[in-house]
Amino acid sequence: MASWKAYAAGIAWATIFGLSFLVTKDALEVFSPVSLLFFRFALATAVMVGLELAGVVRLRYAGKPRRPLLLTCLLQPVLYFTLETFGLRETASSTAGLILGAMPAAVAALSVPMLKERLSARQVLGLALSIAGVVLIVMQGGSVPGGPESGTAVGRTIGVLLLVGALASAAFYNVYSRKASAHYAPAETTFAMMASGAAFFGALALVESLAGARPLGPATPAAWGAVAYLGILSSVVAFFLVNLSLSRLKAAQSAIFGTLTTLVALVAGVTLRGEAFGAAQALGAAAIVAGVWLTNARALRGGAA
Asked: Quick check: pTM over 0.90?
């Protein structure tokens, strides 16, 4: 696959994830976090099985090393979504945005010793510029990645620690998905992730149900539509594109697209919810775009990743 297609895949998954925060907020008015995650990954798994039965994708695991795939699935979605969900419950959304916005830098730091990747001075500058853009947007109260806003003014210590754990999980996921790509096709990695998420969060949802938990509201068509978006686009399509870009680009190059998620969430908030958009947000958006360009400029021109 040409490098420009990997670049396009990165923009696409960042866009899907960025829009998913508005969708998640609506869905959480009906479903508990655990139930929503179960429905999301159960639907994603069913879609992947259907694609395999239809011959659209091929899932072949025999004779391949299990360790990188198992670690990938443990880190994402099991650990990441668990830590992120409960961390967001205890912290302000701005705190979550600042912590999770550092993910590209964490991936870059891990990719050097673990994947033996080398980053040029231009790529380091691009990473720093893009992350600075995220920080600027978050500090000005713009939409941030990490799910629905908690409404909490000050993050608690336990929430911060959980979000740091989510950050570490996301960073290690990028590294191990890159390792798994040497043996597994993007569809194979994606299916394993979706199935593990369905099994894990299904077990938690069962425990929650046995404990007497009830839906927060009526399961309207809009709520199920949100589940469909999260299960098909934000899970199958987006994670396939993530794994695809990780198989073609350096881990740091792929991870930098995560900062675009902040930009998409900001634009969605402005256009769909009438949120404020000032000079600081515009400067932050420009910094994010410039940073992504600097980090991946060579890949866009078709050079070696």
From this structure: no
